[in-house]
Write a structure and sequence with these properties.
Elements lengths: L3 E7 L13 E6 L2 E5 L5 H8 L8 E3 L5 H4 L2 H10 L6 E4 L5 H8 L10 E3 L6 E5 L4 E6 L7 E6 L3 E4 L1 H6 L5 H9 L1 E2 L2 E2 L4 E4 L3 E5 L6 H7 L4 E4 L3
Length: 226
């Protein structure tokens, strides 16, 4: 398992303070990086936190209030300035497309990176990768808003005592993990399900069904309500 951590770039609400930047969060997840709600000043906060543009492969915006999205212009331009070698996907509420376009093209710059727009218009999965499934659920806010949830696929945990009971050792351990069966012994008999980790991101909302759906079973929940 690679590094998994949440880098907090800012936690201020409508107005930044001397010591708190507008919202901004980066989730490092098995070699990838997902940025949530880049508010004003996020590009500078990235420098302070040691976050490179190359670390980003996905951006998720909950809604288009300034403290959750004004930093998009700078972050997008930095991605292009640094010529990030991979596509970067951006999720945002579909009704806010005009705001996204204004921020994306706020000033002149040279586009060098494939920025993939993937607007959110309904609850459900947005992306499925080997590392996670990304879901969105509608929140209750004056403007259209979605929270996000990452779910790691379940894995299996090998039980040494079960292996020993069946006389499985050495290279045979790898074989049963790879093939699922060894000399009539199945992988289920010597292992148990390891529940995948879950992360949820919930911003600016009244209590609603979406909050419960996002937070259920989360190992880490980032939640704020102003």
């Amino acid at each position: 398992m690679s590094v998994r951590e949440l880098v907090v770039l800012g936690t201020a609400s409508q107005v930044p303070t001397r010591h708190r930047n507008h919202n901004g969060y980066l989730l490092r997840w098995d070699g990838g990086g997902i940025m949530f709600d880049p508010g004003e000043g996020t590009q500078r906060q990235m420098l302070r936190a040691g976050v490179a543009a190359h670390d980003l492969d996905r951006i998720c915006v909950t809604h288009f209030h300034g403290d959750h999205s004004l930093g998009l212009a700078g972050v997008i331009q930095r991605i292009n300035l640094d010529q990030v070698p991979h596509p970067v996907t951006v999720h945002y509420p579909a009704s806010g497309r005009r705001f996204f376009e204004r921020l994306r093209y706020a000033t002149a710059y040279r586009e060098t990176v494939q920025l993939v727009e993937a607007p959110v218009s309904a609850d459900g999965p947005l992306a499925v990768t080997d590392a996670y499934t990304l879901e969105a659920h509608r929140l209750s806010h004056p403007v259209e808003s979605y929270g996000y949830r990452l779910v790691e696929p379940d894995g299996r945990r090998i039980l040494p005592e079960k292996l020993a009971a069946h006389g499985i050792e050495g290279p045979d351990v790898g074989r049963i993990q790879r093939d699922g069966v060894l000399n009539g012994v199945t992988l289920d008999q010597v292992s148990e399900i390891r529940r995948g980790q879950r992360f949820a991101f919930v911003m600016d909302t009244r209590l609603c069904e979406g909050v419960h759906a996002l937070a259920e079973g989360a190992d880490m929940l980032v939640i704020e309500s102003t």
